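Hi C.,

You asked whether I'd gotten around to modeling the 355-residue construct. I have! Everything is below, sequence then structure, no commentary in between.
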Amino acid sequence: MSSMRPTADTGGEAGTPEPGARGMGTPGVGAPGAGAPGALRSVAILALVALAALVPLLGPSVALRGTGEAAAPGVGGIALLRAVLFAALCVPAGELFAARLARRVPDAPLRDAPRSWAPAAAAAGFAAALCLASVVANGNLVPRGPGDLDLGGLYQTRDGALALLEVNAFVVAGLCALSSRPATQVWPLAAVAVAEALRAHPATEQSPLVGSGLTLVHVTCAALWAGGLLHVLRTLHRWRSAAPGAGVALLGLYARVAAVLLAVITATGVCSTLRRMPPGTVLEQLTATAYGRVLLAKVLLVAVVAALALWARGRLRRAADPLSAHSPARAEVVVLGAVVAVSAVLTALPVPIRW
């Protein structure tokens, strides 16, 4: 259990050290170096968030280089906003999903759950959705000032109505997260997923409802996969001392469901790709178009995630210490964050032309 050994400062998720441990060489509260693990963890998280933000900011210009394609002004900022919106959807959806799995674990200390990040995620999602709505209100261009916004026009267009739906849905999700029945978040979160699916497939597209259906299933499964793993790992960290066996059981249960989610994500992703890239042009467009290049990067990252998931599952089954599966699972959630960022870039780039 060396990889899950309790530390003195874990951001409020670890148990309180025994009073007699202070001043006895054990890094208890108030001892020299007590805050070092927590500080290093915070710095690492901030560094990862900064690196993730660079993907949508710099990704579009890198992907467009040499393709002869042009993107809308401010595409990097729009991709960053979409990344925040996707993350704000994954976090609460994953919490609800992981909490449901935890209820199926025998003798699980359900009352000793990690602090919910759903209210903060809803606030971030609201801010991102509001900024994206302002772009729609200026004819899908980044506004330079309040005078550029046609707020009344949002109600008259399909894109505007969907943008407003997402803004309102995050407000409702935040209120549900703060209420006595946080499970009701599922409805506004579902509204965000539906809005994203409809937005990605305009009415002028061939069979838009088919495309929206594929995207809805893809986005939902991806949110449960990424957000669910994040909350499972937080729960495993919380239970590492009081109920390590329940934590291992929860991670194993998640792994079985995640295998199904990955299969559905792969199937819907392949179908969506073939709808936008006919089979005879896929290989060429994967290298010759910005959309294809980013899609290829996403596929490679998902392959890395799948390999890490298999590694973690193998440790759960065969390792002498099943809790050692925590290490590849942590790497998996980091790469999943990169997948979310790359997916945001994908939504901001020009859709490839069907040849």
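If it helps when you're writing up: The CA atoms of residues 319 and 325 lie 8 Å apart.

Thanks,
B.
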